[in-house]
TrEMBL record:
Transmembrane segments: 53-77, 97-119, 126-146, 152-177
UniProt keyword list: Membrane, Transmembrane, Transmembrane helix
Superkingdom to which the source organism belongs: Bacteria
Organism field: Pseudonocardia charpentierae
Protein name per UniProt: Uncharacterized protein
Amino acid sequence: MTTATTSYADTPYYDTFATADDDTLRMPLPTAEHTDRPADRHSTGLVLNPTRLWTGGLATAAVAALVGLVGTLVIRVLFEHAPVGASAAHAVNAGNAGLLCLFAAVAALAATGIAHLLMVSTPEPLSYLGWIIGLSTAAAVVLPLLSSVPTAAAVAIAVVNLVIGLAIGSLVVGTAMSARRPATR
């Protein structure tokens, strides 16, 4: 192997790899003082407060469950007064409302868990969280439309799922932002 003919020892902007032997091609390494990034590029000076994150996640679960309950109650009232047919009116009953509330609460807690995981492990965690929640909401909106439920009931459930997803997304992202605090040194 050939060695580099340029001596990087004379260059003030680079350090060479100290343990390289004569058969190693010496490549320059930028020093910390001559880069535009700090030495630890993942350090933002912020620390996650998990208690604040998870209490916000529990509150989000309560809000999501209540959004599901109110949404199904509004659908039931509308279907009583609108000529949509008996099958559409029966598609949204008390049992389905309870399941929707339960799934909404579980989805909020899952979003909080994903937020916690992303905030301790990835750069730009809120960008990834937004995409994950947005795509999950899109799936929750499309799923009722693919089922054998009458069209009016499927559209109504899809709208409720959309509102639940928007509530979870905005509240979990807001909670995650407020759960970050400056690191004390």
